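Q: My labmate handed me this sequence with no annotations at all. I'd like to see what the chain might look like in three dimensions before we decide whether it's worth expressing. Could you predict it?
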Amino acid sequence: MMKIEFLDTTDHMVYGHEGWLVPGTNHVHEGDAVEVFTRWGHNMEGHGLARKEGLTVGVVMPDGNTEDLLVDEYDADNYVIRYTPIQKGLYHFIGKYVGLYVIDQEGKFQKGTLKDYPDAKSATSFTQYSHLTMMVGHNITPVLIPDMLKLPLRIEADEYTKWQPGEKIGFQLLTIDSFLANTELDLAFQGEENKPVVQRKLITNASGRFLVKAEEAGQYLLIARNLVPVGKAGFYNDTKYTYTYYFNVKNRKVKN
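A: Here is what I predict for the chain of 256 residues:
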């Protein structure tokens, strides 16, 4: 495979860059070959690409089984993951990226851990999750969220379906064992025909819930962050979780 050059912006994760997953198609049947793209930037605006080291992608199938997926091909803006679903139902694609950084004595970020910089002022694990759901087949029955999707930071929809313009979509912002009340998160939206990305803030209520009013067809990305004092002795002091959930809203085709 010919080597493709890309702008390496991995280290921008310490300033807020994150990854997200995008489907290559929105209409999938059992046995169809599909592509999923891993993108990188901030609030759905692409900026280079992260290094592959530290990146993993897997899929949770409708029956609850999981499979690790190969992250190999790429271009200047995406990693390309190929997969063929054979079951009807709801699939969850999950990407994970981990970067370890310290702030040195001069106040600068350095890639590494306390083992590399024992005199560092702080050390953090930047742990990011990207989530994409894909419905395969028609007339999908809503199902419970599998246990393996209960990530340290995540957003769950009240119901996963093919959303349409005008709907109010309910979500909840969760941790591994609770919810995040009165917490700010970001919403990025891009209308059809590659319109400029629009960004706005959302906030959860007292039970961690919030609504997205999908007024227009297009691409939506939810971005949540949470810093927790959970570290690894001798390596890092805390963990900054980032979670993205991509979904799209389509106009329903009217049959003549």
